[in-house]
Amino acid sequence: MIRTMITATNTLGQLQSQIDTISNNIANSNTTGYKAREARFSELLYQQFENDQLDLTVRQSPVGIRYGVGAHISQIQMNTKQGSLQLTDRDLDFAFTKENQYFNVIMPDGVNGQRTAYTRQGDFYVTPVAAGQVMLVNNEGYAVADSNGNAISFPDNMKNFNLSEGGTLLVNYPDGTSLNFELAVTQIQKPQSMEQLSGTYIALPTNLDELGLTEADLYTDLLGAARTQVGMTNQKIEMSNVDVSKEMTDLINAQRSYQFSSRAITIADQMLGLINGIR
Q: Which of 195, 201, 187, 269 lies closest to 230, judged by CA?
């Protein structure tokens, strides 16, 4: 009975993590550029008891008894499938038309001052930074980086914005002049190995040596001739790729599994009570 309670308890905590992941997906179903997460389970180690060595029956399974000790989440995997595009008719709304391409934003970092984060959330704005100057930021106020890794700033009083081939932002002014800025675009080869920050943001993990990876293994900055690979459009935003009906089905299954494990603990407790009550 004790073993039953331990096995069920091990699994309960992992099921709670799965429910939290599903709940986060549902909560972000309308978040621009959000990619759904999916919890993948693996069985914990079995314990083999060789208590029946004289059994000569031919069988495919090992002789004896194998006790499982529950399951655990081996990985919370990100679904990188392209989300649907929604027309907004707004000049500073951008969306990728190819998978695994990301905008670069500059986030504050308490250790190094700032760090580069990657997101597919492309609803941008301008904010004043100095006399007559504005800076391109995302909806949370983080600076959008250009292809050199610098924040994009330009004089105020612009007329409108356009997007040219290769992901170049054109800032047009009433006098007919314009400024060009290459939006930094990064192709992520291994999004599952990136560090999840929050919401739609991912970043380079700090333990690359432990993972046996290099920066070149994880991503490629699309620069120079590689800019022809950029797939981007404006006046549109990419919606999340969360399938709410699937998430609700997964939530129901996770809740049933949680109830099953809880019931196993209750039954084991009742059996222990019967044993302790024997006089």
A: 187
